[in-house]
Task: structure prediction
Amino acid sequence: DVVYAGILAMSSNVKEDVVDELVIMDDLLVNEYRLPRDFSRRLSYALAFCDGTATQKVQNAMEFIESCTSKWNRRIGYIYYVLHAVVANLSIPLDTIQKDYDDVIEYLKKSRQYGWFSKPERSLHACMILLSYYVGNNTSIYTLTNAILYTIALMKALAQRSSR
Result:
């Protein structure tokens, strides 16, 4: 959480009422979508970078996330789906985003040795590609992506350590 809060604090395009917005988004994600509090906080931080009302950002994010996953699998870690929230809140129609996402996933499936990656990893990779295509070089998005990848690596390392 500290990393995400730091990224948000350094961003130049954050609104003054960002704290109120974070609380609203977190409440919606926990109470309406029944997400775990740690994931809802990370998702709220990512959504704070996006334009729109708190309610609209959460609706866009969850609609896209739910369309990309057959069901929520708590064992895989929600962190893989944070970038989906950002992609869903770009000023691009959601049906266009969904079509582009499906096209990227299809292309990646055809790539050699791509089957080594799990479905959540493929989904995260597809969103990284879409963000690069849609927004190009954006420091805030790049930093957020690195924070997500670091969190995933840390979670995997801790899981590996505890299984020994």
Remarks:
- The chain has one domain: 2-162.
- The mean pLDDT is 83.
- The two ends are 27 Å apart (CA to CA).
